Amino acid sequence: MPEDRSDTTRREAGSSAKLAHTFYSVAVRYYGRHLLAPAGTGNTATTLLQMLVGERSKPTRRAIAGMVVKSKWRKLKRRLAAPFAAPGDGGTSVLRTLFLGSFRKRLGERPGLRAALDKGLPPLGEHDEMMQLAMDINRDVTEGLAGAFGAAIDNAKFNGLFDAISAVLAQQFVLAPYYFAVFHQNKERHLLRPITGTTRKIDASTLRVGLFTDTLDDINGVGRFIRDMGAQAERGGRNLTIHTCSTHPRFELPNRKNFSPLLAREMPYYKDLTLTIPPILEVLEWADRKQFDAVHLSTPGPMGLCGWLVARMLRVPVLGTYHTDFPKYVEHLTRDHRMVRGTVGYMKWFYSHMAAVFSRSAEYRFSLGDLGVAEERILGIQPGVDTSKFNPSKADGGIWSRHGVREPRRLLYCGRVSVEKNLPMLVEVFHKLRTRRQDVALVMVGDGPYLAEMKQALTGTPAYFLGYRDDAELAPLYAGSDLLAFPSTTDTLGQVVLEAQACGLPVLVSDEGGPQGQMENEVTGLVLPGRDASKWVNAIDRLFNDEALRAGMGRSAAARLQRRDLGKTFEAFWAEHVKLVAPAEAEALAEAPTPWMGE
């Protein structure tokens, strides 16, 4: 993890938490002195807030006991009157109840705040602990509001639904001083640095980049690319921090910062993926301390939006990578043109804010143009493979017997098992291939929402489903197979196509999407019509019948991928970030050979 800079940041321009707490203190004091009736004591929430800012002293045990008795008496009266009473004050009542419950629970976890109370000091002066308390309470309240929201929908109670929505709006209003403070503190920070003597030279070794992604633990090419870039950054001493939001992080990376989501729900139309709601305040507070020089957005999901907010807050350039053709995915999954149009509109907005966008294959430069990204802002970068992990020497003669595969020919698929990967066509291809020959096994590596249906469709055939496999298990599967079939028409790259070739495995890919640009037709494999199952059957049958041709393709594939050095790919990727932040320093890097698009 890059060095923590919280102390230097606060010496430089003060504390965002301190500014926010000043706003809270002024607001609570003004309310208590000018808006609250002279004889009024306010409700419990008001009393607690006044205690935090020092307007009220810590209550005695006798006072606490009295408050408990009064609270229980009020609850009893509400229960007795409930059948006859009109609806209460809705959303604000829900928010107040959740706030008080969380405050009582969380205050005990903050010894610094309790110590301040015991000394008669306002706890609001303990800025770090108070901000942590606010973020903990925000998390508890969000979970409670989500439960209220879900219950209102389940019970078809429109009043409850509107109460929950109003409570969410009130919750964000209460947090407004924190949001304002982190943005305001960074507004003129670049002007303060020369005055305070905290400027620094920015080059490849000192540049700090915050990368934000919604997928790192998922089994796909995007996650693999980001993990590879993270490993290369760590190896080369580059200051790259990868930000994620996951309930159960699968990969522990030294330069990863994971935030526990406020909420995690099943993705609509895609049950195997989880939609997470990041703790925005926590993300902003962390980024305020880290002071990144540039922000990279790898995905247009919730964490990508958080990254966009971070860049706006820090006033730094935004770069991104176009990893996934989401409009095509949405079309495959929903078959709803309105959803597709909405997705296209959102993607145009998202990528329009970027100073530069990486396209991982030449084919998708046109897609970025269709999204309104100017040609001069589109950067191509040659994908790389870690050939120390993926190469022909990883072949293992006993691997098929261990997996129970008896057929002498193995047709491999590796990737997410989902409809948008064009797997229904692969099912059709295998059934037709079985009418010609009985010596071929279909080996499926991966998991996904189409898995159960695909198993059912291939019942009675030699189809083997091996599930998720890590790198150490994948390489022998590539090296020991005869052909890779990757029929996807939606992939922007197809990382598995590169890995398979590095292991000496010929590849069959679709003529739609990015994978066709990552191989050489008739040299390292074949490019086939993405919608024509018969052409795939003919091609597979032809290659299985021509041992010499297939072996030659495998050798050519391995030799070609030896030139795709992952380290050089990362340095080219990093150099573009330096160029945007410190153009003069980037000129020196430009003298080094760059593995750019094409060969």
Question: What does this molecule look like?
Answer:
With 599 residues, the chain is of the alpha/beta class. It has 24 helices and 15 strands. Helix 20 crosses helix 22. The chain starts with 5 loop residues before the first helix and ends in a 10-residue tail after the last helix. The N terminus and C terminus are likely disordered.
Structural descriptors:
single chain; about 600 residues; alpha/beta; 7-stranded parallel β-sheet; about 10% strand; elongated; disordered N terminus
Helical run tally: 24
Residues in helix, % = 40-55%
- Residue share in β-strands: 5-15%
Mean pLDDT: 84
Shape: elongated
Rounded to an integer, what's the Rg over CA atoms?
29 Å
For the record, give the distance between the C-alpha atoms at the N and C termini, rounded to a whole number.
35 Å
Q: Number of DSSP strands?
A: 15
Question: How would a crystallographer describe the biggest sheet?
Answer: 7 strands, parallel
Give the class from helix and strand content and strand pairing: alpha/beta
- Uncertain stretches of 5 or more adjacent residues: 2-13, 84-89, 592-599
Sheet with most strands: strand arrangement: 3-2-1-6-7-8-9
